[in-house]
Amino acid sequence: MNYSAKSGIKTFNKILFAILILLIIALVLIVCVFFKGGSVKTVTQEVGAVEASASVEFQSGTYGGVQFDSIEDVVNYYVTAYNATKAETANYIDEDGNTVTFYAMLGDEDLQIVGDVLVDGKTNSIIDSIVPGVINTLFSGNVYGLPPCSNRNPDLDTDENEESLMTSRLTADDIVSASVSENSDGTITLVMQPQACEMSHKGLDSQGKMFNVLGAIDETVESISVLSWASGTTADNCKVTYENGTATVTIDPETGKITQADYEMLVTVDVTHANVSVIKDKSATLQLSYTQHFPASDEYLMTSRNLTRA
Length: 310
Description:
The chain is of the alpha+beta class. Helices cover 24% and strands 33% of the residues. It contains 6 helices and 16 strands. The protein has helices spanning 9-35, 71-86, 125-138, 217-222, 234-237, 298-305, and strands at residues 41-42, 61-63, 66-68, 89-93, 99-103, 108-119, 122-123, 175-182, 188-194, 197-198, 227-229, 238-242, 246-252, 257-276, 279-294, 308-309. Strands 6, 8, 9, 10, 11, 12, 13, 14 and 15 form a 9-stranded antiparallel beta sheet that branches. Strand 14 and strand 15 form a beta hairpin. Helix 1 (9-35) packs antiparallel against helix 3.
């Protein structure tokens, strides 16, 4: 049975730009019809409401009985633990009472707009009040294995080239900063921040090796028939920037496996010079925070996908 992950961030990818276009239209209508431009405030600062995460500075030393001399050691330790953890499967009972086999370590997910949605560099209180409801309606949390992951069924967990995502592809070159700390129970916590990049793809770049990124949004934009550009191409006018996201991962040195993990991906989406019907040459910007926590609770598994652990 193909348990495709269609209702989480994978589906949101396909409608993200439709939301932006609707917001452009909505803002124009609100300003022109209701407020005649009176309630729109200009945001003078550059987009970047998401501040960089707290600096994670690497210090060599022994943590949990493990020696770390470099960021490469941190990454290698994470990769080994990731591979060992993702190699484990477990049985679950689905909504039809069938026993199914998925990753043993499954996580939850959440998607939020960060700050204001900007249209032509301006924000509007009504637009800002509408957006959370739109997001909540369109986004329904799914269940995945450790990211990057396209499916909770290991056999279906592949990248866009149909190559397996069961093992990590992360390298030291993908990481801009990292830190290690030892916890009171002897476990080790790693904090890693991947290199920034544009239009990330799962498993294929620095951000895509760490997070469940959005993938080929430019292809989605090309499929929106009502959208055209006042100038330039889709590549010029469709920017998706991944930066400042972090992975905080706790590992048990005795088992060499991940016991808890939190992944926070931060992404800024910009559309410029958009034409939609009679609305010409508009821009829109929004920032997203996509978070995953492992392991998911029994309650989350049930409410999100009617799954129970066998």
